[in-house]
Amino acid sequence: MENLHGCSKAGKNRFGALYQLHLVKTETARAFIPKEFKLVEAFGYTLGGFFLANYEDSPAGIFDELVIIAGIVWNPPTSCAWAARVLVNSEKACVHGRKDVGLPSQFANFTKRIAAIPATDKKRSRFCSFLSKIGMRGSEVNVKNSMDIQVKETKDGSRTAMDICSINLPAAAMEAPKNDAKKWIGPSLKLCLPSFSGRTEYNPHLLKYSCKIECRLRVVPPAKVMGPSEADNDKDERNHCISIMLSKPILALKFNRLKMTVEAPSIVAQ
């Protein structure tokens, strides 16, 4: 979960965040990772994916963030994730991420839509069908909400927004209301994770910093990711990022009551 938060020294997200691990092809990940780093890989794949969050309290104000993670690099005796792209809908967070944290931050638009989905329980579905036939189907129908989030990247100084992806968050990945005491949101954890960044046009140095996290963590069903409606065959960074988002998910972790503190980065000696 490294290289997650490029906005500030401290951030809080009451509604949690989603960290989803994907199997990413090594050749795709290599397009973003400096040559001196050894990639953690097996059978032509590494672990990439994405981190999606909405921050309600930070020095940059309220904003959304999508971190596209290319893969895992060795940092003996452990390893670190490397961010291929950081998409935020806050100019302040974007500038800070670029210049101070060395992240490949870009401004983006996040469009959210809540969709109501009937429960899939078979017994209840048959019961609801019976009620519908006799004209009594009403408030008893069990309905859950999912959220569709469309992300479009906007280039500096341009009004043109380019589709990156659309993410469908299942009901299980959305945090329960505070008054729902029966909803288990996972054990309480405190983590301190090292992270690499830099080597961008805005910050050419190789940087290292620590990310301190407090949260409640649980496993949830993976979110469904869809690519742009129009295909683009160019092998540019945007399309490599889309390939990462569309790769096979293997694990999704929900961070509830997330508090994150990012320390000031230091330059790594050659």
In short:
The protein has 270 residues and is mainly beta. It has helices spanning 26-29, 91-99, 122-133, 237-246; strands at residues 10-13, 17-25, 45-55, 63-75, 78-88, 105-118, 143-154, 161-169, 188-198, 206-220, 224-226, 248-262, 266-267. The protein is 13% helix and 48% strand.
Structure description:
- The chain is mainly beta and 270 residues long.
- Helices cover 13% and strands 48% of the residues.
- The chain has helices at 26-29, 91-99, 122-133, 237-246, and strands at 10-13, 17-25, 45-55, 63-75, 78-88, 105-118, 143-154, 161-169, 188-198, 206-220, 224-226, 248-262, 266-267.
- Strands 1, 2, 3, 4, 5, 6, 7, 8, 9, 10, 11, 12 and 13 form a 13-stranded mixed beta sheet that branches.
- It is globular and about 65 Å long.
- Residues 1-10 have low confidence and may be disordered.
